[in-house]
Each structure stands twice: as C-alpha cells, then as structure tokens.
C-alpha cells in the first residue's frame, strides 16, 4: 500500500496520537508548538489528497483491512476534500496566530489540556468528513462536540458556561435525533455503510420507517448546523468562546454538519424515496430564505461585534442551504463553494476580532472608535473579509454568490424571488459591516492608551487570511473544480 493510500487514516490518527503527548508537555509554549505542528501536518495531508483528487476519483481506506460494508471505511472525494481543507486550514491558522490570545485568556497550567481538546476537536471533525459509516459519523460527532464544549468554556468569561450548557443541550438533542434516524435505517437495511445503505434502501418494502428516519436525521443535523430556526445556541457560543476558538469553530463546525446532511440525503434518501427531492427542497428552501433575512436583520441590530458576526454566520448557512435546496448542478456547486468561501471570510473577520481584542477594552461596536488609526492592518483585513462576506467582485464571496444567482435564475419566476432575497441579504450585509467600518474609521478614538500590542505572528496570519479572500476571488480554479466535482458526485446517485 502506497503512502497516498495511507493518508486518509493518518488524517485522523495523527491528531489522536498527539493528544496524550500534548497533555504531558508542561513547559511553557511546548503544548502550543506540538498542536501547531500536528495541525500543520494534517493540513499538508489534506492538501496532498486534494491535489490527487483534482482530476476526479476518490481515495478509500479499509480500517484493519476489513472490506466495506463489513469493515469501517474511510473515504475521501472532492466533497470531503474541500471540507478537510477548511477544517485543517482553519485550525492551523488559528493555532499559529493565536498563542498570545490564548495565553492571555487561559491560565498556563490549563493550556496543555486546552490544546489536547483542540486536537480532539480537529480529529473528530476530520473523522466525520472521512467516515463512510453512519454510526462512526456519530462517534466522531460526539468526540468533536465534547471537545468543542471544553474549548468554548475554556476562557475566563463566566458567561461562556450558560452558553456552553445551551450548546450541549441542543447538540445532544441533535445527536440523539441523528442516532434514532440511523437506527431506523439500520433496522430496515441491516447495514451502516452509506454506499451499501443506499443500495439496500431500494429493496425495503415498507418505506415509512425510512421516511421517519429521514426526518429524524434532517432535524438532528439541522440542530448541529444551526439552520434557522434551530440556531439559538450559536450566537452566545461564538460570542463568549475564546477568540481563537471562535476563529476555528466559525470556519468549520456548522459546515461539517451540513456536509453530513447533504451526504446522507443525496446518497441515501433522494435516489430511493419517491418525491423526497421535492420534500427536501420544500422543507429547506423557506428556512434558507428566512435565515438570510431574519439573521441579517438581527446582525444589523446587534451592538456586540462577535455576536453580530455570529448572526451573520446563521445567514450564510442560509445561502449554503439555498444552493443545496435547488437540487441542481449549479446550485449545489454554489452551496459547496460557499462553504469554502464563507470559511475564508469569517475566519478572516474573527482573526481581526482577536487582534482587536488585544488592543481594545471592549468589543462593542461603540468601543471600536478610532480602531483603524491604531490598527490599520487589522482593520484593512477586516474590511477585506467584510467585502468577501458581502460578495463584492474580486473577493471569494462574490464567486459563490454568482453561482447561486445563476442557479436561481434557471427557475423562472421562483428564481427571480430567490435572486431578490440573495441580493437583499448582501445589501443587509453591507449595512452591518459598514456599521463597524464607520465607527472604526470615522469616529474619534478614546483618550485611553492601547492595552497590549498585537503579536506580529497573529497580525501576519490575519493578513494572509485576508489575502486568501482576494486570491481565491481571482484564481477560482481549485475551489470551483472541487465544488463542481462534489455536486456531480451528489447528483450522480440522485434521480
């Protein structure tokens, strides 16, 4: 077996193996360095697999040499590759730039445990994307969720505790619903492998339990993905988490749940259940439209910067689900592409927030007065991330919204309504991003001096993330080709 064929297993195994080592590294800075090296390694692994998959195809790894469906299968295709890039890239950039932010928010004796939880979250999220087995998706989901609860509660802000409790309750409900749905499908098919499950669902005489399972799985994953109106846990979780944790989770946590939802629905349910494609569209499209409008209104009214960006994330999930609900090649391409582009934009914005938090006494909108004069590079990166979030031409966000509008226009009169909502959501994003820019650039700075300088490494990482928004807004080949291949693989098994 070649090294390339081993990469899917290494993607999960390396972070897991690094966890006990990181926990034992007590000297100051060693745990952080080990976590950075581990995350960078799996990012390089994801890049290597992506390069191999650009021409199409997939990579399979049978755990213990037990062939599927009897053994556990790890599988990487274009869809999972783009998610792996998001997960490992967000983790690496956040860890690389976040040492100073972490040391100011977390006591030194707790840092090894914090970084161990980070690597568990990284391994769990990667495992969800890699797993071809429905039950192992649940196992990795629980690993990543439990680690995420620890990360969010790891900061000094006591308000994180009720936020984590709400997240835990909602996450547990979502995982329970998902597990009930998987159990129903297993009861009717006798298999947990997704590909084998798709084949066997066709032979089930009574489709009612399968329909019930589809409902449980969809609602459970919608809770995990913060799809409107099941998003109540997300604003507080993002607001009160340590700033670097928010960078990591905002870029990839909800995207992974969306990945599982789309993978399960398009592979298992839509090819085999009569009329399920319309049910999928009719259920998700109204929720996506409401998410774009309602969450954008909430962001426009919000006075705290992190909460504003959290509500923006709910709206951006709406764009992703709107693309998927069109059930077309271009629509799904737009949705998958927006997973990548939104991770770039929101990662940049929250990195800028981490920089601002080191210099400013408050992250309220009013507390940003004069920030652009004190921190010109940070605010320039924030502006680039905001433009990408809006979808201004020349940024990554424009590309996915262009594909989304193109897909919507193929639906005649309904398409015009969808385009109006997409454009309206972008205009609302202009409003809430401009609120921040106006205060930072045009309001008078307070007389109080800045508390701490921004570390050069964090500033450098923030600028790199901002530059990536511009680069992928112009050089669109890799993400677009991966998104198109992902859409083709999902629709290849759909009617």
Write the layout of secondary structure elements.
Blueprint: H1 3-24, H2 30-53, E1 59-62, E2 73-76, H3 78-97, H4 99-105, H5 111-130, H6 134-152, H7 160-189, H8 194-201, H9 208-225, H10 234-240, H11 243-269, H12 276-301, H13 305-325, H14 329-359, H15 371-374, H16 376-390, H17 396-409, H18 412-442, H19 456-474, H20 477-491
Antiparallel strand pairs: 1-2
Helix pairs in contact: 1-2, 1-5, 2-3, 2-5, 3-5, 3-11, 3-14, 3-19, 3-20, 5-6, 6-7, 6-11, 7-9, 7-10, 8-11, 9-11, 10-11, 10-13, 11-13, 11-14, 12-13, 12-18, 13-14, 13-18, 14-16, 14-17, 14-19, 14-20, 16-18, 16-19, 17-18, 17-19
Explain what the structure shows.
It is built from 20 helices and 2 strands. 76% of the residues lie in helices and 2% in strands. The model has no long low-confidence stretch (mean pLDDT 87). The radius of gyration is 21 Å and the shape is globular. It has one domain. It has helices at residues 3-24, 30-53, 78-97, 99-105, 111-130, 134-152, 160-189, 194-201, 208-225, 234-240, 243-269, 276-301, 305-325, 329-359, 371-374, 376-390, 396-409, 412-442, 456-474, 477-491; strands spanning 59-62, 73-76. The protein has 495 residues and is an all-alpha fold. 57% of the residues are buried.
Largest sheet: 2 strands, antiparallel
- Helix-strand pattern, N to C? HHEEHHHHHHHHHHHHHHHHHH
Secondary structure: number of strands: 2
Provide the spatial order of strands within the biggest beta sheet: 1-2
């Amino acid at each position: 077996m070649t090294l390339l064929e081993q990469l899917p297993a290494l993607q999960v195994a390396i972070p897991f193996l690094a966890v006990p080592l990181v926990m034992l590294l007590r000297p100051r800075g060693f745990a952080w360095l080990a976590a950075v090296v581990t995350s960078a390694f799996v990012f390089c692994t994801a890049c290597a697999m992506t390069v191999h998959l650009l021409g199409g195809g997939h990579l399979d790894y049978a755990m213990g040499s037990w062939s599927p469906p009897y053994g556990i299968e790890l599988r990487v295709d274009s869809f999972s590759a783009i998610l792996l890039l998001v997960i490992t890239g967000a983790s690496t950039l956040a860890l690389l730039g976040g040492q100073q932010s972490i040391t100011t928010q977390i006591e030194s004796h707790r840092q090894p445990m914090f970084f161990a939880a980070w690597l568990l979250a990284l391994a769990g999220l990667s495992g969800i994307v890699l797993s071809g087995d429905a039950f192992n998706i649940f196992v990795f989901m629980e690993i990543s969720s439990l680690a995420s609860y620890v990360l969010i509660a790891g900061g000094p802000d006591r308000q994180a505790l009720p936020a984590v409790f709400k997240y835990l309750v909602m996450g547990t409900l979502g995982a329970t619903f998902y597990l009930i749905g998987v159990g129903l499908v297993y009861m009717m098919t006798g298999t947990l492998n997704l590909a084998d499950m798709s084949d066997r669902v066709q032979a089930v005489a009574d489709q009612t339990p399968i329909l019930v399972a589809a409902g449980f799985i969809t609602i459970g994953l919608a809770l995990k993905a913060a799809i409107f109106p099941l998003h109540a846990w997300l604003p507080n979780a993002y607001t009160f988490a340590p700033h670097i944790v928010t960078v990591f989770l905002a870029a990839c946590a909800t995207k992974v749940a969306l990945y599982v939802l789309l993978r399960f629905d398009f592979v298992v349910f839509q090819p085999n259940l009569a009329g399920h494609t319309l049910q999928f569209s009719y259920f998700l499209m109204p929720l996506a439209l409401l998410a774009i409008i309602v969450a954008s209104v909430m962001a426009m009214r919000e006075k705290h910067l992190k909460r504003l960006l959290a509500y923006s994330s709910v709206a951006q999930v709406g764009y992703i689900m709107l693309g998927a609900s069109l059930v077309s090649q271009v629509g799904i391409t737009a949705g998958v592409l927006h997973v990548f582009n939104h991770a770039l934009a929101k990662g940049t914005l929250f990195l800028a927030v981490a920089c601002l938090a080191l210099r400013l006494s408050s992250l309220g909108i009013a507390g940003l007065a004069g920030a652009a004069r004190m921190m010109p590079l940070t605010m320039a990166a924030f502006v680039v991330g905001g433009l990408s979030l809006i979808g201004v031409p020349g940024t990554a966000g424009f590309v996915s919204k262009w594909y989304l509008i193109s897909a919507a226009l193929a639906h005649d009169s309904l398409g015009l309504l969808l385009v109006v909502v997409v454009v309206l959501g972008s205009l609302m994003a202009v409003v809430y991003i401009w609120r921040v820019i106006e205060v930072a650039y045009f309001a008078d700075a307070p007389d109080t001096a800045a508390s701490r300088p921004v570390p050069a490494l964090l500033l450098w990482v923030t600028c790199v993330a901002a530059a990536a928004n511009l680069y992928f807004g112009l050089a669109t080949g890799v993400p677009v080709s991966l998104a198109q291949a992902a859409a083709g693989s999902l629709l290849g098994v759909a009617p």
